[in-house]
Amino acid sequence: MNISRLNLSHYPSFITTKTFNNYPFFKKPDNVEILISCIYFGRTNNWFDLIAFVVMPDHLHLIVVPKDKNISQVMHSVKSFSSKEINKINKENGNVWQSSFRDFTISTKSVLFEKVNYIHNNPVKKGIVADAGLYEFSSANSIYETDILKIL
Predict the structure, then answer these.
(1) Residues 26/137, Cβ–Cβ less than 8 Å
(2) Alpha-carbon torsion 103, 96, 124, 140, what sign?
């Protein structure tokens, strides 16, 4: 059975996507910087409002509110461009991402806070850092701007 995505505008979507064969592409900071640049390119170009993200060694968690692109279009663009750039700098030409992603439409503020907390604490849970705000590849880190206040 193939269930279609809801793609509801004005509702946040919690997205998880994994690297191809769970390879830790994002242990390499240059690869992470490409991915985060792609995310912020989408935000700047009004594809979505960015609520939260974390880039883990082998996966990405993201919460966005779709605007000019639906979730499928957003993920296609982010994954396609980031994989081309990652392959370019690493002089490779293989798959970076698994072909699909999981998404969950968030309908209440309490679930939104639960999912943001989950994303931000993922590096803590995995033992990478002791404090979520210290992880350099997450919106929990104060160096990153998000749009969470827009939807609260």
Answers:
(1) yes
(2) negative
Whole-angstrom CA distances from 13 to 28, 37, 116, 117, 143 are 27, 20, 11, 14, 23
Whole-number average pLDDT of the chain: 94
Please tell me the distance from the alpha carbon of residue 31 to that of residue 12, in angstroms, as a whole number: 26
Helix (H, G, I), strand (E, B) or coil at 44: helix
Token pair recorded at residue 139? 């919106």
Is the CB of residue 20 less than 8 Å from the CB of residue 94?
A: yes
Rounded to whole angstroms, the Cα distance separating 152 from 149 reads: 5
> For residue range 2-47, what is the model confidence (pLDDT) as tens digits?
445 555 667 999 999 999 999 999 999 999 999 999 999 999 999 9
> In the chain, which residue ranges form alpha helices assigned H by DSSP?
29-44, 71-90, 109-125, 148-151
